[in-house]
């Protein structure tokens, strides 16, 4: 079989390997490493959010509103693990995703049960990615002939088969896929709250990525221009029937704007140096905590330039007045609750927030099943303890004021167990201390940005690690490391 790319496919998308439909050489592998994949992911998440089960899971359990950059980083890492050349890496990631999704269950506002591991919902996620990929190619003037489409669809089927060996709910052939897709658009998708949060709130309020957090004025100005444009492009690319049902009008000129945006990303992929258009490069530039071997020196100058620009902007921006002592204390407590505890951004502390913390740790450390189960069990014990002590009205949630008023005096045996589990999974060599290498593996942050411990040659004992964790979770102690794990967006 020839290794040449099929007709209409850019040279940047290699032909698939018959022996490996997901690894290097596959179309999906190449696409998932290109920065223009962001257009696919953004459009797909709107289509996913319109599915009632997925929309309910996003609203009640997801951190995508409060921590969008962290969610993006984790999604990129997961997708790239799923197409990793090593089959063992793929299988491990698929098993991890299945475990995490199986824990996301509940009841939506209409009393309907939802489960993130539902086969139909899982298949719809893959379907939206495939159809959005085809749409990306079409809008950017990149035609896909029938063999290329069949090959791409078979790769997405293989992607789904990793998490659902029985093949899920996707049709087995591309010819059957399009009627299925039309049925989902017409009969299954709904005007969910999640769709409008993504379009109306996420683009308009997305916080600065880690690299630009010290330049809030510049970010706010750029977001004010880019947010409405990103929303308009996303809406214009959606199926017309769905736009009508969601009440999303297509503004004049947005169709041409959408074609221009998609075409520009394709031309950038073809004309710019490859290192500049790789997704890893952009992710590393935006988020220094994103450790990628492919970042290289291509983005070093860009990051240094951004840092200098931020420093200049801070010099030109008047420093805010120092608040009074009581106001500073109250603002600190409010900020801690919003940035650390309220992971889902709904204004309350409830079980999905603690589950999100556990998922973040499990994702960072790539925990195996026993350690992940221990971690979730410890967080579940802590939640039951919080409910008993603080949830006086029994509504299943805790306000920031309730938490701040009680934690200073509350001794939490369950939270100590959370810290001890975290210590155990971090102490890779089992010597009952955490050294610099193990600390870095946990927090994925440069030591010179961390004042919370684990710096240089320092070794943390179990007792010291637990003490620092408890101080942080009570809002009594600051740690750049824990902020990087739980608070950063």
Give an overview in words.
This protein is an all-alpha fold. The strands form 2 sheets. It has a two-stranded antiparallel sheet. It is built from 22 helices and 4 strands. It has helices at residues 27-32, 37-49, 52-61, 68-82, 87-102, 119-139, 146-163, 174-188, 193-205, 216-237, 240-246, 254-271, 279-286, 300-316, 325-341, 351-365, 369-390, 400-407, 413-426, 436-443, 462-473, 480-487, and strands at residues 105-107, 113-115, 433-434, 460-461. The longest helix is centred in the middle third of the chain and has 22 residues, at 216-237. The protein is 62% helix and 2% strand. A hairpin with a 5-residue loop joins strand 1 and strand 2. The two termini are 46 Å apart. Residues 1-9, 11-18, 293-331 and 444-456 have low confidence and may be disordered. Helix 6 (119-139) packs antiparallel against helix 7 and helix 17 packs antiparallel against helix 19.
């Amino acid at each position: 079989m020839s290794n040449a790319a099929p007709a209409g496919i850019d040279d940047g998308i290699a032909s698939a390997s018959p022996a490996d439909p997901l690894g290097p050489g596959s179309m999906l592998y190449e696409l998932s490493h290109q920065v223009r994949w962001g257009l696919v992911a953004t459009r797909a998440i709107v289509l996913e959010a319109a599915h009632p089960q997925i929309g309910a899971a996003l609203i009640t359990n997801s951190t995508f509103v409060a921590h969008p950059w962290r969610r993006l980083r984790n999604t990129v890492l997961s997708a790239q693990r799923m197409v990793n050349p090593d089959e063992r890496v793929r299988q491990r990631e698929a098993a991890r995703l299945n475990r995490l999704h199986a824990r996301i269950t509940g009841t939506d506002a209409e009393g309907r049960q939802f489960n993130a591991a539902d086969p139909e919902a899982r298949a719809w996620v893959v379907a939206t990615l495939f159809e959005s990929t085809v749409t990306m190619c079409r809008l950017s003037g990149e035609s896909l002939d029938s063999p290329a489409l069949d090959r791409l669809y078979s790769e997405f089927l293989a992607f789904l088969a990793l998490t659902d060996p029985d093949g899920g709910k996707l049709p087995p052939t591309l010819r059957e896929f399009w009627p299925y897709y039309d049925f989902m658009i017409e009969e299954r998708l709904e005007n969910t709250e999640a769709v409008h949060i993504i379009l109306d709130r996420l683009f308009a309020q997305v916080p600065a990525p880690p690299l630009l957090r010290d330049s809030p004025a510049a970010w706010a100005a750029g977001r004010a221009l880019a947010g409405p444009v990103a929303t308009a492009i996303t809406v214009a690319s959606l199926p017309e029937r769905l736009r009508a049902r969601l009440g999303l009008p297509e503004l004049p000129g947005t169709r041409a704007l959408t074609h221009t945006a998609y075409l520009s990303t394709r031309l950038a992929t073809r004309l710019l140096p490859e290192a500049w258009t790789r997704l890893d490069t952009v992710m590393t530039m935006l988020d220094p905590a994103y450790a990628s071997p492919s970042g290289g020196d291509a983005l070093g100058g860009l990051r240094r330039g951004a840092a200098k620009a931020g420093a200049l902007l801070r010099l030109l921006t008047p420093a805010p007045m120092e608040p009074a002592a009581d106001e500073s204390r109250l603002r600190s407590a409010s900020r801690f609750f919003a940035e650390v505890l309220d992971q889902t951004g709904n204004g309350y502390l409830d079980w999905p927030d603690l589950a999100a913390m556990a998922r973040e740790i499990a994702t960072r450390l790539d925990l195996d099943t026993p350690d992940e189960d221990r971690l979730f069990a410890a967080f579940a014990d802590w939640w039951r303890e919080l409910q008993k002590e603080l949830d006086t009205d029994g509504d299943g949630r805790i306000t920031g004021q309730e938490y701040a008023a009680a934690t200073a005096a509350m001794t939490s045996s369950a939270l100590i167990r959370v810290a001890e589990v975290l210590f155990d999974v971090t102490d890779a060599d089992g010597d009952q201390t955490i050294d610099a290498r193990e600390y870095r593996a946990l927090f994925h942050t440069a030591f010179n940005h961390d004042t919370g411990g684990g710096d240089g040659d320092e070794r943390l004992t179990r007792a010291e690690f637990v003490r620092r964790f408890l101080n942080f979770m009570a809002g009594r102690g600051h740690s750049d490391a824990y902020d990087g794990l739980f608070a950063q967006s």
